[in-house]
Amino acid sequence: GSIKLVIEAIQENTEHEEILTKGLIAITNFAFNNNLNRIICKKLGAISAIVTAMRAHPDSGKVQKQACRAVSNIAVNNVDLKSEVLSSGLIECIVGVLHNHMADMNVVVAVLSALYSLCVFHGLRKEIDETGVENVITDLKSRYNSDTLVYSRAALTEAELKSDENCFGFIGNWRRISDAMMGSEDEKNDTIPQQAKSALSEKAKSVKSRLSNRSDSIKPMKVKVKEADLEAGISPDIGFTPKSGMGDEAIL
């Protein structure tokens, strides 16, 4: 099928940056809001192909950004992905992108979303934390302290790395959104930019309202994560919605 052809194209054209970029965009689009395609991508070796592309062009912001977007979309709800991630060296590649492309906002957002997905859906907090990425995220928050999107993604990813539980569903995501937005009790000296706080506050209020209206039907199921995160504007899928047409670049 189409997914197999795209993955093969990536693996066979590692010297061509443009082919890799378009192939990664296609994988991102295949995996958007489609659990069956995510499973197919996993079984056909998409993770290995993504790592191959990242290693072939470490200085290409286009390749690295799209690779991380593809990871974010494949990782959502894909419960069998952990072994592929660990054996392929994907985590090290993703963290390396932060070091090499910290000045590129779009790349940074893609990286943070990939890390968030790997934490939430695959419990890879320990493995990610061992890379020392928390210090890099702290630097990001300082560098982008006036940018609502980057700061909020960095804060949310940081909060997720510090969590010791897999907490899915409306309530779990609300708590994490709140912690990332306002800071936990031991982070009161960490001043969140007013612009970012105000923007996130409105989205958080909307989530809280939905929580109160649906308290009787809340179930701690993975499938609920997407809806809660979408309302808050921070779902991994949010950043990587495909445009119409297979080759079009996914938009942020």
Brief account:
With 252 residues, the protein is mainly α. 67% of the residues lie in helices and 0% in strands.
Would you mind describing this structure in some detail?
The protein has 252 residues and is mainly α. 67% of the residues lie in helices and 0% in strands. The protein is built from 14 helices and no strands.
Please describe the topology of this protein:
Layout: H1 2-12, H2 17-31, H3 35-43, H4 46-56, H5 61-75, H6 82-88, H7 90-100, H8 105-122, H9 125-129, H10 133-143, H11 148-162, H12 169-182, H13 194-213, H14 225-232
Helix pairs in contact: 1-2, 1-4, 2-5, 4-5, 5-8, 7-8, 8-11, 10-11, 11-12, 11-13, 12-13, 12-14
Task: Give short descriptive properties of this protein.
mainly alpha, 252 residues
**How many β-strand stretches?**
0
Overall helicity: 55-70%
pLDDT averaged over residues: 75
List unreliable stretches of 5+ residues.
167-175, 180-192, 214-252
Alpha-carbon Rg, integer:
17 Å
So what's the oligomer here?
single chain
Judged by helices, strands and strand pairing, the structural class is mainly alpha
Number of helical stretches of at least 4 residues: 14
Strand residue percentage: under 5%
Order of helices and strands: HHHHHHHHHHHHHH
Distance between the termini: 27 Å
> Shape from CA axes?
globular
Q: How would you sum up the major sheet?
A: none
